[in-house]
């Protein structure tokens, strides 16, 4: 099976930026006869808003963005993530890390490490030291990345080559939940995802995710997945669109008398595609023709009411 996916965090209503990315996921998947899967990235219980997953689904469907197969919830997949880490452990590629966020920030950065990269503090702790530290705080689990593997790159259909430096990323957080990078890679692989379309703010994650996918499943990082990182929607100040930028969710727009069809048309127009049913837009859709720059949302672009 060949599939694309849309993977929102159920942390509130989707705004026009999220909806535009979802629409693109639908178009890009369908254009090449892929299925489209919906996955809720709800591992961060503190960010999950009760009922928002269902609202997101209803909003997507009201734009005719439909999905194949069963919806997947990351919060129900702990065992699957743990099994993946167990495999890496057997290869000696996992170590316990006791650092707090603050300690990581304060630690001297390794030369050439990208900002925020883990400096490797807990990499070589003795068994005795680990035992002592475990009594103070539960460990997170990190990936041991050999120095020669640090530089990775992927090919993106919109951005071209994306280079990245892979640090000893967290696999399992110290509260026992799978970290974002691990969950994404495991889920994408096990559900047959071979097209990853998402906002270009996540482009820098692609090299490390491709690397992890190769380690876990042996698929060559460069050829297993097609990446499409799409430009974000901006507000009139040139910043990434957010909920505080006025009427930006379907519910808010509806309150102003703007229904889902008008929103769909606005989004299609922003992509240079014909307005109307999605099937029609699909006929005109070509990845190569997509706008390469961000789209600025202006309320004046909305149809008169
Ligand atoms: N859950 C992420 C988000 O809502 C998307 C992660 C991904 O597509 O890899 O931004």
TrEMBL record:
One of its GO terms (biological process) is glutamyl-tRNA aminoacylation. PROSITE patterns: AA_TRNA_LIGASE_I (PS00178). GO terms for molecular function: ATP binding; glutamate-tRNA ligase activity. Residues 108-149 are annotated as: Disordered. Residues 5-267 form the Glutamyl/glutaminyl-tRNA synthetase class Ib catalytic domain. Keywords: Aminoacyl-tRNA synthetase, ATP-binding, Ligase, Metal-binding, Nucleotide-binding, Protein biosynthesis, Zinc. Gene3D superfamilies: HUPs (3.40.50.620). GO terms for cellular component: cytosol. The keyword Ligase applies. InterPro entries: aa-tRNA-synth_I_CS, Glu/Gln-tRNA-synth, Glu/Gln-tRNA-synth_Ib_cat-dom, GluQ/Sye, Rossmann-like_a/b/a_fold. Coiled coil: none annotated. It holds the Pfam family tRNA-synt_1c. The keyword NAD does not apply. Belongs to the class-I aminoacyl-tRNA synthetase family. This is Glutamyl-Q tRNA(Asp) synthetase.
């Amino acid at each position: 099976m060949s599939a694309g996916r849309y993977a929102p965090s159920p942390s509130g209503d989707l705004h026009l930026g999220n909806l535009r990315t979802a629409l693109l996921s639908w178009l890009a998947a369908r254009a090449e006869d892929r299925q489209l899967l919906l996955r809720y990235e709800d591992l961060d219980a503190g960010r999950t808003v009760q009922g928002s997953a269902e609202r997101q689904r209803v909003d997507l469907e009201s734009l005719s963005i439909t999905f194949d197969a069963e919806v997947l919830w990351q919060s129900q997949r702990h065992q699957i993530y743990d099994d993946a880490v167990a495999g890496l452990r057997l290869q000696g590629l996992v170590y316990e890390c006791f650092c707090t966020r603050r300690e990581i920030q304060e630690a001297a950065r390794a030369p050439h490490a990208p900002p925020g990269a883990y400096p490797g503090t807990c990499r070589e702790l003795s068994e005795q030291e680990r035992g002592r530290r475990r009594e103070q705080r539960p460990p997170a689990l990190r990936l041991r990345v050999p120095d020669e593997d640090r530089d990775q790159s992927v090919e993106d259909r919109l951005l071209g080559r994306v280079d990245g430096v892979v640090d000893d990323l967290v696999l399992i957080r110290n509260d026992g939940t799978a970290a974002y990078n691990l969950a994404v890679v495991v889920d994408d692989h096990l559900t047959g995802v071979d097209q990853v379309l998402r906002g270009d703010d996540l482009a820098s994650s692609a090299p490390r995710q491709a690397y992890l996918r190769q380690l876990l499943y042996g698929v060559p990082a460069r050829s297993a997945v097609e990446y499409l990182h799409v430009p974000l929607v901006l507000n009139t100040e040139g910043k990434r669109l957010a909920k505080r930028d006025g009427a930006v969710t379907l519910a808010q727009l509806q309150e102003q008398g703007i229904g889902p069809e008008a929103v769909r048309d606005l989004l299609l127009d922003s992509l240079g595609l014909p307005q109307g049913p999605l099937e029609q837009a699909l006929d005109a859709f070509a990845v190569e023709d997509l706008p390469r720059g961000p789209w600025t949302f202006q309320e004046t672009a909305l149809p008169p009411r």
